[in-house]
Design brief:
- Pathway: Glycolipid biosynthesis; lipid IV(A) biosynthesis; lipid IV(A) from (3R)-3-hydroxytetradecanoyl-[acyl-carrier-protein] and UDP-N-acetyl-alpha-D-glucosamine: step 2/6.
- Keywords: Hydrolase, Lipid A biosynthesis, Lipid biosynthesis, Lipid metabolism, Metal-binding, Zinc.
- The protein is α/β, with parallel strands linked by helices.
- The protein contains nine helices and 24 strands.
- It folds into two domains: about 160 residues, 2-Layer Sandwich (lpxc deacetylase, domain 1), CATH 3.30.1700.10; about 130 residues, 2-Layer Sandwich (Ribosomal Protein S5, domain 2), CATH 3.30.230.20.
- The longest helix is centred in the last third of the chain and has 15 residues.
- About 45% of the residues are buried.
Length: about 350
């Protein structure tokens, strides 16, 4: 049974009702028992650099380039090479500017108001699953490239770089008891401490519920490099209604008019069927939307915890970027994050 614990934001009765609703959903793909490597003791950075290019996300006719580079600084950083007099943006909750209006996405900004990068979630989410603690990400605009293979191109670029281990220990953080934030649509996200303090892991129980062909989906898994790699091919999902909107009324907005989305790089769901071929099918059911939500969206918000890697249990139901980021903000506002070692005492 889902235990919401302390409510940091939202209506307690509504959250409990949603917990009960999620508990009634069957688990479509349960990988809870998968054996994964013990948590790392020392921080890593890249061994070499790698560069990758693709059409822009918000400016689809323009080519955008990202370079992954080693760094001696702790954390992940975004460096706008087209703004040479600005400092790199640290990946962290303090630098979240917005989660988008028309197009839902996480936007990071620091210092100069022009020093921002949009749609960062599909990049920074990899901090949680690829075993890379410190990295400089150089990008030639605030509009990252969009790929037909989801984030797999980024994963393969990181593979080219390789990793080196430093002498700095990895700081791990968690919560002492379950904490929850709830939204206004029956959505919630809960963080809880790990079950096994002798072999602590980061685990996810994620469920979605759409009024389209996506329907109800629920997956459970431990966060690890193998599953991150598998899930990275999952694309952003959208509804056929939103596609029609973007092609008509939405064209009055520049962000929509120039979007790089197409039938290959997004999953489109109508009321009763998908408009293009879905991915990540398990036992006859397409779970692309659930894997995208869990690995490339939800974990992107957890990656915004920048004073340590979070270890524990994440439960998410019907949530999105806005609630994800509010969760992380509330963790700091309520000062509930603690070093993992504190629970072992």
């Amino acid at each position: 049974m889902t235990n919401p614990g302390t409510i940091l934001m939202g209506d307690g009765d509504a959250i409990k009702a949603s917990c009960n609703e999620m508990d009634r959903l069957p688990v479509d793909w349960d990988l809870s028992d998968k054996q994964v490597e013990p948590v790392r003791k020392y921080q890593t950075t890249l061994k070499e650099s790698a560069t990758i290019s693709g059409p822009g996300t918000f400016m689809g006719k323009a080519m955008r380039t990202i370079s992954f580079e080693p760094t001696k600084q702790e954390g992940w950083w975004l460096d706008r090479t087209d703004l040479p007099h600005t400092l790199p943006i640290r990946v962290g909750i303090a630098n979240v500017w917005t989660t988008g209006q028309i197009v839902s996405n996480i936007v990071l900004r620091s210092g100069n108001p022009h020093n921002y990068v949009r749609m960062v979630e599909h990049i920074v989410s990899l901090r949680m699953g690829m075993g890379i603690d410190n990295m400089m990400i150089k990008i030639d605009s605030g509009d990252p490239p969009l790929f037909e293979q989801g984030s797999l191109d980024l994963v393969e670029a990181l593979d080219q770089c390789g990793k080196v281990t430093t002498d700095k220990p990895v700081p791990y953080v968690t919560v002492k008891e379950p904490v929850t934030v709830g939204g206004t649509y029956g959505d919630f996200v809960t963080l809880a401490p790990p079950d096994d303090l002798d072999n602590p892991q980061l685990t996810v129980d994620c469920a979605i519920n759409f009024k389209t062909a996506i329907g109800q989906q629920r997956i459970k898994f431990p966060v690890c490099e193998e599953l991150t790699r598998m899930a990275s091919i999952a694309r952003t999902n959208t509804s056929l209604a939103k596609v029609v909107y973007c092609a008509t009324i939405g064209r009055i907005f520049a962000d929509v008019r120039h979007l790089g989305y197409n039938t290959k790089n997004v999953s489109i769901a109508g009321k009763r069927r998908y408009m293009n071929e879905p991915r990540l099918i398990h036992e006859g059911k397409a779970l692309e939307a659930a894997w995208h939500r869990a690995v490339l969206d939800l974990l992107a918000a957890i990656a915004l915890i920048n004073n340590g890697l979070f270890i524990g249990k994440i439960t998410s139901y019907k949530a999105g970027h806005r609630l994800d980021c509010e969760l992380v903000r509330q963790l700091y506002l309520n000062q509930v994050l603690v070093p993992l070692e504190e629970l072992k005492k």
